Amino acid sequence: MIKTILIxxxxxxxxxxxxxxxxxxxxxxxxxxxxxxQKTKELGIMIVGRKTFETFGQALPGRxxxxxxxxxxxxxxxxxxxxxxxxxxxxxxxxxxxVWTDLSPxxxxxxxxxxxxxxxxxxxxxxxxxxxxxxGCIDELFLTVEPVxxxxxxxxxxxxxxxxxxxxxxxxxxxxxxxxxxxIKK
Length: 186
Ligand SMILES: NC(=O)c1ccc[n+]([C@@H]2O[C@H](COP(=O)([O-])OP(=O)(O)OC[C@H]3O[C@@H](n4cnc5c(N)ncnc54)[C@H](OP(=O)(O)O)[C@@H]3O)[C@@H](O)[C@H]2O)c1
Prior knowledge:
The chain is of the alpha/beta class. The chain has a single domain, classed as Dihydrofolate Reductase, subunit A (3-Layer(aba) Sandwich), CATH 3.40.430. The chain is built from four helices and ten strands. The strands form two sheets. Strands 5-4-3-6-1-7-10-9 form an eight-stranded mixed sheet, sandwiched between helices. The two termini are 14 Å apart. The model is unreliable at 74-86 (pLDDT under 50). The structure holds NADP nicotinamide-adenine-dinucleotide phosphate (NAP). Residues 8-9, 16-17, 20, 22-24, 48-52, 55, 68-71, 74, 102, 123-128, 131, 154 line the site of NADP nicotinamide-adenine-dinucleotide phosphate.
C-alpha cells in the first residue's frame, strides 16, 4: 500500500498558521525549510489543499504537487489547467509540476499507487490533514515544533477522532526546534 506521510510545522500549541493567507516560511526556521525541501524532493510527490497552494502561489521545483479542490475554476490567474481529477504519471523533475484533483483521499491514493508511487507527502493545510486523518489515510507524521505559541490561527487537525501515535524519532533541527517523527497506531 502507498504510504502517506504528513509533514507540518507547528507552534507549541498545535497551530500551523496565524491566518489562512499566511505562508509557513514566514515563521518557520531555516532548518525546517531545509527539512521540508529535502523530504518532499525525496518523496517526489506532495498533496496540498487549494488554500495552501495559494500561499505557495507556484509549483515547487523538483516535485509534483497534487492540489485538492472541489472548485478549481475559482483559482484565478494560476496557469495550471485542471486535469479532470486525474493524476499524471511521472516524477517531479526539474521545474516542478502542479496537478489539480477532486478525487477523494482514498481514490487519490489508489490513483497515485497505480502510477507507481510508493509514498506521498501530505503537506496540508488543516482541511487536508483532517480529511485524510478522518478517513484513516495517514501512516506517519513529521512534525516540526517551532518555539512559538500562536494565540489564534489554523489548527493542525480539526474534527477528527482521537488517534494514538507511536514516536519513532525525536531530533533537534537547531537549538530551538525539534522534529518529531510518529507512526499512526492502526
Ligand atoms: N505550518 C505548516 O506546516 C502548514 C502546512 C500547510 C498549510 N499551512 C497553512 O494552512 C493554511 C491553509 O489551511 P486550510 O485548512 O485553511 O486550507 P487547505 O487545507 O490548504 O485547503 C482547503 C481547500 O482544499 C480543498 N479541499 C478540502 N477538502 C477537500 C476534499 N475532501 N476534496 C477536494 N478538495 C478539498 C478545498 O478547495 P476549494 O475551496 O477550491 O474547493 C478547500 O477550500 C495556510 O495558512 C497555510 O499556510 C501550514
